[in-house]
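Residues determine shape. Next comes a sample protein:
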Amino acid sequence: MRSRRLMWIAWPAFLAACLLEMAVFALVDPQDLHWGGQPLALSRQGIYTLGFFVFWAVAAVSGALTTLLSLSPFELNRCPLEPAARPDGCPRQVAGQAGGEGLSCRTGN
């Protein structure tokens, strides 16, 4: 499931970065960009590459936040450990314990 969620984030972010790259650099010439009053010391292709990865990272962070916020409380707080491997003090240490199925292994949750 984790790899599926990763693809839910990475693939749309990649497509968004492609579209942003085309839209931005259709209007902006990379050789006209300046940083701190000085022209960028990168080649045109380097600026395209850097821009693409920046767009991809921003879109991926946006998608990751959306995915995190779409998780149910059970998915977010469930303990990833088997009942026998849970640490002492875990409220879900005993399998089949009534209630609290969504509790995490941390004490006090």
